[in-house]
Amino acid sequence: MKTLVAPMLALVTLTACVPPTAFGQKLRQTPVVENTQFEQSIKILGVEDNAMIGVGFDKEFNNYGNHYYIRSWINKRTAAVTHQLYVSVWYRGEWHYYQRANGQDAMPIPFTEISRDVVSCAGGRGCVLAEDFGIDLSDAVLAANPLGFSVKFYAKDGADFILQISQAQIREQLQAVAQARRALKP
Question: How many whole angstroms separate alpha carbon 99 and alpha carbon 159?
């Protein structure tokens, strides 16, 4: 019985430091539209993926920490749309400080740091760290790449990784945006 106490205590400690929806949460398979009277924009959260590749994160977190998706905002007055690729990366060790991204054409993409958090330091294998960030995407970039495209992210410490934005992510997001925009017109 004694051998079960330590692992269970570590799991309880780790779980207490993680957002309650992180463990066991399934990836979003279809876009979710958030539209309330209190917001000036309609928000669309796109299809999630966690098929991260490269160096700079720990694949053990692909079940709950690592994920990315396109999110869009539609201004209710003007119907103007902005898009962002939102990325959440969990890893162990020292901070990477992700700070920039390039498209597959080697051109820089506007980068936004969103948050950095210590998820947990339980378990004796080093702290679990989380970085959330985004890159701006335009309608033109999404429309010009209907089969998908790649983005490479770079950190201050030299870590980097490449994400593939899939055909399904782009198609589903653009369809949800078009539908929401049509609903705005009287």
Answer: 10
Render each residue's pLDDT in the chain as its tens digit; 186 residues: 444 433 333 333 333 343 333 445 688 889 999 999 999 999 999 999 886 654 445 556 655 678 899 999 999 999 999 999 999 998 888 899 999 999 999 999 999 999 999 988 887 778 889 999 999 999 999 999 999 999 999 999 998 889 999 999 999 999 999 999 999 876
For residue 89, the 8-state DSSP code is E
Report DSSP letters for 16-59, one per residue: HHS-TTTTTPPPP-S-EEE--TT-SEEEEE---B---EESSS-G
Instruction: Write down the pTM of the prediction.
Output: 0.81
| Spatial CA neighbour of 19 closest among 120, 103, 105 | 120
Indicate the fold that domain 2-184 takes in CATH: Immunoglobulin-like (2.60.40)
| Residue 186: strand pairing partners | none
Q: Is 135 exposed, middle or buried (0-12, 13-18, 19+ CB in 10 A)?
A: buried
Say how far apart CA 18 and CA 112 lie, in whole Å. 23
Q: Where are the domains of the chain?
A: 2-184
